[in-house]
């Protein structure tokens, strides 16, 4: 079961704990991004983990693109007489 936090106020909306302190307001009252929630050591840890995740995803995408390009170049070098798209 997915862990959630209660937004309080504005009904009983809950949001995934992964959305707490991720820089995007998900609770109608902004509780998931409030200083009370995100200024704590746990909130700061969540922000750091979020930034690391985004950085890793970006890095992985760039690396995959680079490796794909290199693979194409290497194949052309090894099989110069062949035609590749
Ligand atoms: Ca959020």
Task: Please give a structural write-up.
There is one protein chain. The protein has helices at 35-38, 41-78; strands spanning 4-6, 14-16. The protein is mostly helical and 85 residues long. It has one domain. It has a two-stranded antiparallel sheet with strand order 1-2. The chain is elongated. Calcium ion (CA) binds next to loops.
Give me some keywords for this one.
85 residues; mainly alpha; two-stranded antiparallel ribbon; 2 helices; binds calcium ion
Structure summary:
The protein is mostly helical and 85 residues long. 49% of the residues lie in helices and 7% in strands. The chain has one domain.
Order of helices and strands: EEHH
- Order of strands, widest sheet: 1-2
Helix-strand category: mainly alpha
Q: Bound compounds, please?
A: calcium ion
Q: What is the first-to-last residue Cα distance?
A: 46 Å
Biggest sheet record: 2 strands, antiparallel
Using only CA atoms, what is the Rg? 22 Å
Provide mean pLDDT, rounded. 80
Q: Any low-confidence stretches, pLDDT <50, length ≥5?
A: none
Strand content: 5-15%
What shape does the CA trace take?
Answer: elongated
Total helical segments:
2
In helices, the fraction of residues equals 40-55%
């Amino acid at each position: 079961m997915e862990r959630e936090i209660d937004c309080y106020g504005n009904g009983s909306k809950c949001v995934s704990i992964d959305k707490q302190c991720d820089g995007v307001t998900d609770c109608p009252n902004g509780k998931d991004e409030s200083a009370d929630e995100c200024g704590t050591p746990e909130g700061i840890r969540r922000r750091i983990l979020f930034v690391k995740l985004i950085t890793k995803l970006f890095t992985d995408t760039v690396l995959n693109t680079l490796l794909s390009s290199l693979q194409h170049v290497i194949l052309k070098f090894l099989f110069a007489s062949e035609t590749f798209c």
